[in-house]
C-alpha cells in the first residue's frame, strides 16, 4: 500500500455550471491537500483541516504558484492523424480525401503504428491530458499499438478500430462483417483490460453501409454486462450533411441514421454536432448520448460554430465534453482548445467563463464518457489522474496573473495564454508520469 500527499491550490467540479451556475459547480481549495492511496484519492480537503492524517514519515509534494486540477479529458481525437496536423487549405470532405486517407494507410504497418502511438501518448500526457476517446484506423493492429502503449502508461483510454466499408480508397476499406468480427475480437481483448475501454467506432455515416452500421449496433446490444462505448462524427459540415441526406433518404436527419442502427444511447460520443437541430438535441438528451465540442478543428476546417449553450438548454440538456480532434484540430493542449472555445462562444453571443471552460475539459468529459464516478474530479474514491498547471514557469504569464483579481480571472488568463508549457506535472493513477523539470520528464509508472 502506498500513500502520498499533494498540497497546493486545487480546483475541481461537483456539478455542471451550465445548469447550476458557475459558483455552485466549482470546488476550490486555496491551500488543499490530496491524499492518494493505491492510485485512488482517499481524502481531499483544506490542508489545515485534514493535515492531521499525514503520518510523521510521509512525504508531501507541495506545488506553489500552481493550480492542481483533474487530469484533462479529450473527448475526440484521432491518434493516427498527428502526422498531418496543419494540413493546409481544405474543408472536411476534400481534407479527408487529400490528407487523411493517405496518412491513415500507413497504419497497416504495426511498427509504424507503435511509433506514432508512443509519440501521441507522450504529447497527450505532456499536455496534462490523462483520458481520451481515441479513433485508431481501419487496421486492427493500429488498435493493438494504441492500447499496448496506453497500458504501459496505465492511462484510462477509450479507443477503437475505425469502421469504413465505402467511399474511401479501396485499400482502406473493411467489410461490414470483417468490421464486426475485428471489433468483437478487439473488444474481447481490450475492454476493461486494466484501465482500457473499447469503443465501437464507425467513422461517419458516409463511410459506412447500412449493413455495417446495423452490425455495429448489434455488437453494442450483445455486450450487456460491461457495455461498450460508441463514437462517430455528427453534423460537422454542411456538405457532409447534404451527402448524408442523399445516402440515407429514409432518415429524418443525420442523427436518425445512427439511431435507426441502435447507435444512440449512453456512452455514445458524437464528435462536433456543429449543425445539430432541435430534434437531434432532444433525441441526444432522451437517450443520454453526448456531443464532443471540437473548436480548434471546427475553426481550422471552417465547419462552423458549435452552440454549447443551446446544447445545454436546461429543458433538455445534452452531455458535452471538449475534444482536440487532432489532426483537424491544431493543439494537444486543452488550454489552447478552451481559448478557441471561448472565441466560438463569443461569436455565438454567449459567455463561456473559465468555470464552464475547465468543467468541459474535466468533469464534462467524464460525464460525456459516463465515467463521472471514476475520473474527472478530485474527490474521495476517484482515480487519481491529476494535472498541475504552473503559472510560475513562464515569467510573462506570472506577471499577467499578478493583475488578476480572483480565481476566475486567473483561470481565464491561463486558458488564454497557456498551453502544454504550463503543465508542470501529470499524475496517472497516482503516479507522477510527467514532470517538466525532471532530467527525464516522462517516466512510465513503476
Ligand atoms: N469525419 C469523418 N472522418 C473524420 C475525421 O477523421 N476527422 C474529422 N474532423 N471529421 C471526420
Ligand atoms: Fe474527428
UniProtKB/TrEMBL annotation:
Pathway: Purine metabolism; guanine degradation; xanthine from guanine: step 1/1. SUPFAM superfamilies: Composite domain of metallo-dependent hydrolases (SSF51338), Metallo-dependent hydrolases (SSF51556). Residues 67-432 form the Amidohydrolase-related domain. One of its GO terms (biological process) is guanine catabolic process. It comes from the Bacteria. Belongs to the metallo-dependent hydrolases superfamily. ATZ/TRZ family. Pfam families: Amidohydro_1 (PF01979). Its EC number is 3.5.4.3. One of its GO terms (cellular component) is cytosol. One of its GO terms (molecular function) is guanine deaminase activity. Catalyzes the hydrolytic deamination of guanine, producing xanthine and ammonia. Its cofactor is Zn(2+). This is Guanine deaminase. Binds 1 zinc ion per subunit. The lineage of its organism: Bacteria, Pseudomonadati, Pseudomonadota, Betaproteobacteria, Neisseriales. InterPro entries: Amidohydro-rel, Guanine_deaminase, Metal-dep_hydrolase_composite, Metal_Hydrolase, Metallo-dep_hydrolases. The keyword Metal-binding applies. It comes from Crenobacter intestini. The keyword Ribosomal protein does not apply. Keywords: Hydrolase, Metal-binding, Zinc. It catalyses: guanine + H2O + H(+) = xanthine + NH4(+). The gene is guaD.
Amino acid at each position: 500500500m502506498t500513500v502520498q500527499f499533494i498540497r497546493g491550490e486545487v480546483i475541481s467540479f461537483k456539478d455542471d455550471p451550465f445548469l447550476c451556475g458557475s459558483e455552485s459547480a466549482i470546488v476550490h481549495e486555496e491551500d488543499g491537500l490530496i491524499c492518494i492511496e493505491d492510485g485512488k484519492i482517499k481524502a481531499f480537503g483544506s490542508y489545515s483541516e485534514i493535515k492531521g492524517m499525514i503520518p510523521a514519515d510521509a512525504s508531501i509534494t507541495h506545488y506553489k504558484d500552481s493550480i492542481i486540477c483533474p487530469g484533462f479529458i479529450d473527448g475526440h481525437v484521432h491518434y493516427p492523424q498527428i502526422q498531418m496536423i496543419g494540413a493546409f487549405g481544405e474543408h472536411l470532405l476534400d481534407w479527408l480525401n487529400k490528407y487523411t486517407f493517405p496518412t491513415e494507410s500507413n497504419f497497416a504497418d504495426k511498427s509504424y503504428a507503435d511509433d506514432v502511438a508512443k509519440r501521441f501518448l507522450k504529447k497527450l500526457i505532456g499536455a496534462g491530458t490523462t483520458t481520451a476517446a481515441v479513433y485508431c484506423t481501419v487496421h486492427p493492429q493500429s488498435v493493438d499499438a494504441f492500447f499496448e502503449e496506453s497500458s504501459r502508461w496505465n492511462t484510462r483510454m477509450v479507443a477503437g478500430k475505425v469502421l469504413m466499408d465505402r467511399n474511401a480508397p479501396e485499400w482502406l476499406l473493411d467489410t461490414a462483417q470483417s468490421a464486426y468480427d475485428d471489433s468483437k475480437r478487439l473488444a474481447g481483448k481490450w475492454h476493461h483490460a486494466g484501465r482500457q475501454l473499447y469503443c465501437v467506432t464507425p467513422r461517419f455515416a458516409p463511410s459506412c453501409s447500412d449493413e455495417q452500421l446495423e452490425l455495429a449496433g448489434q455488437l453494442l446490444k450483445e455486450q450487456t454486462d460491461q457495455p461498450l462505448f460508441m463514437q462517430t462524427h455528427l453534423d460537422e459540415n454542411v456538405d457532409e450533411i447534404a451527402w448524408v441526406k442523399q445516402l440515407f433518404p429514409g432518415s429524418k436527419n443525420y442523427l436518425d441514421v445512427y439511431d435507426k442502427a441502435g447507435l444512440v444511447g449512453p456512452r455514445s460520443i458524437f464528435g462536433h454536432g456543429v449543425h445539430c437541430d432541435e430534434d437531434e438535441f432532444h433525441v441526444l438528451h432522451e437517450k443520454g448520448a453526448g456531443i464532443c465540442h471540437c473548436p480548434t478543428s471546427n475553426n481550422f476546417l471552417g465547419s462552423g460554430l458549435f452552440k454549447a449553450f443551446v446544447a445545454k438548454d436546461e429543458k433538455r440538456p445534452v452531455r458535452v465534453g471538449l475534444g482536440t480532434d487532432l489532426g483537424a484540430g491544431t493543439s494537444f493542449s486543452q488550454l489552447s482548445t478552451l481559448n478557441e472555445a471561448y472565441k466560438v462562444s463569443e461569436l455565438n453571443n454567449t459567455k463561456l467563463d473559465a468555470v464552464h471552460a475547465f468543467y468541459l475539459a474535466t468533469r464534462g468529459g467524464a460525464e460525456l464518457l459516463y465515467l463521472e464516478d471514476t475520473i474527472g474530479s478530485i474527490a474521495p474514491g476517484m482515480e487519481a489522474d491529476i494535472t498541475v498547471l504552473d503559472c510560475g514557469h513562464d515569467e510573462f504569464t506570472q506577471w499577467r496573473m499578478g493583475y488578476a483579481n480572483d480565481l476566475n480571472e486567473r483561470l481565464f488568463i491561463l486558458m488564454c495564454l497557456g498551453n502544454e508549457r504550463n503543465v508542470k506535472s501529470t499524475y496517472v493513477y497516482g503516479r507522477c508520469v510527467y514532470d517538466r523539470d525532471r532530467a527525464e520528464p516522462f517516466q512510465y509508472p513503476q
